[in-house]
Amino acid sequence: MSGSSVYKSSVDFKTAPVDYRFSTAVDKTKQCWSLYNEYLRCGAKMGVENPKCQQFYKFAKELCLADQLKSFYEARRDDLWYGYKLPIQPSELQDGDEAVKPDQEEHHAYTWNQRHPGHEYGKEKHH
């Protein structure tokens, strides 16, 4: 095979690459979360529409269940995401969706904040 290379010099993955840190079914859930979180990290640096960031999102879509991606989106929308903090970008909004704020009844923290006025759970602290 001299003269023709079996390997490309520039890797262009069509599907999510194998990551041996995540080898079992339970680990695949962790890999799903990790890929989505990498999408957010990339999006914060280069914008979520950047092709490199879209590649991470594509891998996450291939590996994650639809319900997982939906829960990740909702957690970010409602400021409950425990991974890399990147607010929902305009291009990511689904069906005219808007972020739910802690002072709105639909937010998970609304009842807590009503019962514990000094704590203000779900609101950013400004020091």
Description of the molecule:
This protein is mainly alpha-helical. It has a domain at 25-84 and 97-115. Helix content is 42%, strand content 0%. It has four helices and no strands. Helix 1 runs antiparallel to helix 2 (51-63).
In short:
Helix 1 packs antiparallel against helix 2.
> How helix-rich are the residues, as a percent range?
40-55%
Number-wise, the strands total: 0
Strand content: under 5%
Report the major sheet: none
Report the end-to-end length measured between terminal Cα atoms.
65 Å
Order of helices and strands: HHHH
Task: Give me the Rg, rounded.
Answer: 19 Å
Using brief descriptors, characterize the structure shown:
127 residues, disordered N terminus
List the helices and strands and how they pair.
Blueprint: H1 25-46, H2 51-63, H3 66-77, H4 110-115
